[in-house]
Amino acid sequence: MYMRKVAIIGAGITKFGELWDKSLRELFVEAALKAVDDANVDLKEIQALYVGSMSPGLFAQQEHIAPLMADYLGLTGIPATRTEGACASGGLAFLRGVMDVMSGLHDIVLVGGVEKMTDVTTERCTYILATASDQEYEAFHGLTFVGEYALMARRHMYQYGTTKEQMAMVAVKNHRNAVKNPHAHLRREVTLETCLASPMIAEPLQLFDCSLVSDGAAAAIICPLEIAKKFTDTPILVAGFGQATESMATHDREDITKLRSTIWASQKAYKMAGVEPKDIDLAEVHDCFTIAEIMAYEDLGFCKKGEGGKLVEEGETEIGGKIPVNTSGGLKAKGHPVGATGVAQIHEIVLQLRGEAGERQVEGAELGLTHNIGGSGGTCVVTILKRL
Amino acid sequence: MYMRKVAIIGAGITKFGELWDKSLRELFVEAALKAVDDANVDLKEIQALYVGSMSPGLFAQQEHIAPLMADYLGLTGIPATRTEGACASGGLAFLRGVMDVMSGLHDIVLVGGVEKMTDVTTERCTYILATASDQEYEAFHGLTFVGEYALMARRHMYQYGTTKEQMAMVAVKNHRNAVKNPHAHLRREVTLETCLASPMIAEPLQLFDCSLVSDGAAAAIICPLEIAKKFTDTPILVAGFGQATESMATHDREDITKLRSTIWASQKAYKMAGVEPKDIDLAEVHDCFTIAEIMAYEDLGFCKKGEGGKLVEEGETEIGGKIPVNTSGGLKAKGHPVGATGVAQIHEIVLQLRGEAGERQVEGAELGLTHNIGGSGGTCVVTILKRL
């Protein structure tokens, strides 16, 4: 079966943060228009829209946001579809856009993600995020997201000797990178001591092991590869992708030190792209908690199982290391407006592969990977992007 | 561009109604397994899942339902994606599944829709449904869904002389059809007098002008046409489809007696299928309110603008008429679990085109149409299905 190859010709992102003066629709429109400008397309050339968002209904009392965004972009009429897969909603939107172009239906497609999280209280936010786990068997009994990852962290420490210091090193690295990212939510360095002295949230995870609650949006413009050069000299090829699911409830898993959804999704993506983990030059991974980044190293094949802690400790995931991870600052410091995250990861890799990442540029990056997780691993989307 | 043709090889549906003894996941799994049985596929052959649902977050405190449903079907691992477009969420899921197969990525795909609406109070339900309109400019100021359609009805009456009797005739017809549908929520006939004597909800719409609040799910199995005969002697071709958006807020529209999303989506679908409105043998249209069915007749091209009232009055949309509409009983009497509706419409047309619709069979039906609306018209999905 012939499938059209798909390229990214533009990307845009808002500042991430507590953006109380901007509404859900304003955030999305801002990111989308930046992507349109970046792609050098005329707004009227956009033929379809995909928007990822986890819970605009619970966060902002607004469902049905895809036609709303089309409308506010002046694109009333075009097909507009929302996808939802908790914190992987953005990744799902990106893949649906890619499939749409692959199918031959549309040529120029806008994909994006958005979330407006800071208009609710912390307690309410914790409740809303827990709707991404198995409500009846987990959330109902009081298991929050940080609780789920705390269980994974404790088991990982027990099974592989991973240390709290190694987890804190993920936070230190990602904060250091975020200083160089003008769109990041928290642009300040933190020390290992600060992390280890921070308040306990769900043992063994402390405050600095947790990603941020942010508002923000990100967007990208995609089209068939064969017409991409009309718009840009530096199209970025969607070389491979994979999507997979894991048992919804963590208690249904044989082993909670890994996410099978990450393993399966990345295997599909590597196969489609015809590459191996060692070929990847840099990655944006889903560090909703520091332990999640360590598990991602392993599940994506950047190191052997159980050696993720060592990988960060040895500096291999720093800019300049063997496989730089989360050059943007990651969910930990760039911020994590959940529906936007998957597309924000795409944005970072696009900048890096074009050589436009400024102070945080990974020299000579040709092949980048994104890894977007929903919930405690129920959904995983992996993409492999390539400089041509 | 070559695009694979897609066929429906199986469909399943639950009883619609106030199903207090069944949870969200149970409803979806029941419909999905019925579709799997009907398609004669092995469960393990399913490669991807699309689930449409409007607001499991607000109705049932559960987001991230796609991996949950994959998990409960014993399909942990497969890509599973939720789509949302208010009451058109099911239609969106169906189209994403079709695009997935068209793209060549997957061969056997499960698509479905589900909603569990009756576990919340009526007031809460009204609030939740209003999140499908423009929250900040409509719902916030007290405009409910029935209020929106009441404005459309009043204007349609003023502009075209449509009568309350004609609207009530839609309800009478759909209730009559529902008696013959074992899965329908309300299986009883109503008289014109009952309708016209029913309580006023939002003038001029009375209780019997309004569709039902229901629990339920529907599902279908699709695959490339070239392998469909392996599974069934009666594959149903997805001959055409279209998706479009309309201004989110009704006050932004030039004319509220029509939905441009319906006009644009159906024009695309007719063009793709190479047919005209007069070729359609029967249709399932989105009769969330009786006026919506009358507007759909017109916007889909079954009659001229303004003559929808006359079409139902003359009996042309009855079984046995020129263009039978809502043989299932429609949203009015079959019921309207919002996320399930788009796929339930597909289910009805599949039965009819196969000649398996029992007492409500439209003789010799070869070409059927579904019309699924989100919100007050913000999203529209139209499909044209064909017996081969």
Task: Describe the fold and architecture.
Helices cover 37% and strands 18% of the residues of chain A. Chain A has helices spanning 24-39, 56-60, 65-72, 89-103, 122-130, 145-160, 164-178, 192-196, 225-228, 260-273, 290-299, 308-313, 330-333, 338-354, and strands at residues 6-13, 48-52, 80-84, 109-115, 200-202, 205-206, 216-224, 236-245, 282-284, 367-374, 379-387. By secondary structure, the first copy, chain A, is of the alpha/beta class. Chain A has two domains: 6-120 and 214-236, Thiolase/Chalcone synthase (Peroxisomal Thiolase, Chain A, domain 1, 3-Layer(aba) Sandwich); 140-211 and 239-387, Thiolase/Chalcone synthase (Peroxisomal Thiolase, Chain A, domain 1). Strand 3 (80-84) of chain A pairs antiparallel with strand 3 of chain B, so a sheet runs across the interface.
The CATH architecture of the largest domain in chain A is: 3-Layer(aba) Sandwich
Give the class-level CATH name of the largest domain in chain A: Alpha Beta
Name of the CATH homologous superfamily of the largest domain in chain A: Thiolase/Chalcone synthase
User: Please, how many domains of chain A?
Assistant: 2
In which range does the helix fraction of chain A lie? Answer: 25-40%
Could you tell me how far the N terminus lies from the C terminus of chain A, measured between alpha carbons in angstroms? 24 Å
Indicate the CATH topology of the largest domain in chain A.
Peroxisomal Thiolase, Chain A, domain 1
Q: Which strand order spans the largest sheet of chain A, edge to edge or round the barrel?
A: 3-2-4-7-1-8-11-10-9
**How big a fraction of the residues of chain A is strand?**
15-25%
Largest sheet of chain A: 9 strands, mixed
- Continuous helix count of chain A: 14
Quaternary status: homodimer
Shape of chain A: globular
Output the structural class of chain A: alpha/beta
Taking all Cα atoms into account, the compactness measure Rg of chain A is 19 Å
